[in-house]
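Data availability (excerpt). All sequences and predicted token strings are deposited with the supplementary files. A representative entry, N-acetylglucosamine transport system permease protein, is shown inline so that the format can be inspected without opening the archive.
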Amino acid sequence: MLRRRLFITSFLAAPVTLYLVYVIAPYVQAFYIAMTDWRGVSAAPRFTGLENFQRLFSDGIFWKAVSHNALLLVLLPLITIVLALFFAFLLNVGGKGVTGVRGSKFYRVVFFFPQVLAVAVVAVLFQQVFRPDDSGMLNGPLMALGLSPVGFLSDPSVAFWSVLGVMVWQAVGFYVVLFSAGLASIPGDMFEAAQIDGAGRFSLFFRITLPLLWDTVQVAWVYLGILALDVFAIVWVMTDQHGGPDFSTTVMAAEIYRNAFQYFRFGYASALGVIMFFFTIGFAILALRLSRRERIEY
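Structure token line:
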């Protein structure tokens, strides 16, 4: 028994040490820096206690960023999962009998294509799509019809929804493939038996597909929620003034970067990072607990 424990410990020692050094230690360091006035260059930062957190909770821009992350936290998972479930159901059970629609394999590739593109590439691509002149893919046809162009990224009341649309467009394809894989594991006999009993498409989805895919949906919700809290590149690259106009699209990750590498307020940026850390952990725990249900065996 002792030999077995020593054998297991010898294999775990190296990865656990690396994890402690490169993952846990930076977290601990960030918590310490959050309680200092470090500007990134001073050798001995002054300890300020909770001063950064007090400033943070009275910062209007911080609350704007939190409100945007909160909206994304609700809307991004909800819209993405609903669309992905709908498309996955059509691709797998939407044809005659319990088969997918014709060309479903091709559609899966098309849906998944945005995942191949880097986030920065997607941001630059949609900068051109949303251009406010006649060269924009959306405003060009509007102006050709004599309509006024829409400020997708320049109008504070529209910019956030444009960012949300791009995030959904990029994310939905991956979850279509994920849910399709889950549907493929469900025996076709279950759908056939339900159809013989007179179940329609609506009943098939809500009585068979959704309950049997619930574990996958739960995981998707957590991943998308973390993405909504951790979003940075899309906002920073695509939007005006890196979170504008007038901070109408800014998020916590963008404010962390701005305070650290533009204003050189590393202590304040670390305080933002600590708040974001607790938001993310809290969301994951809450989502898993609220969506927990008995596993269905088949």
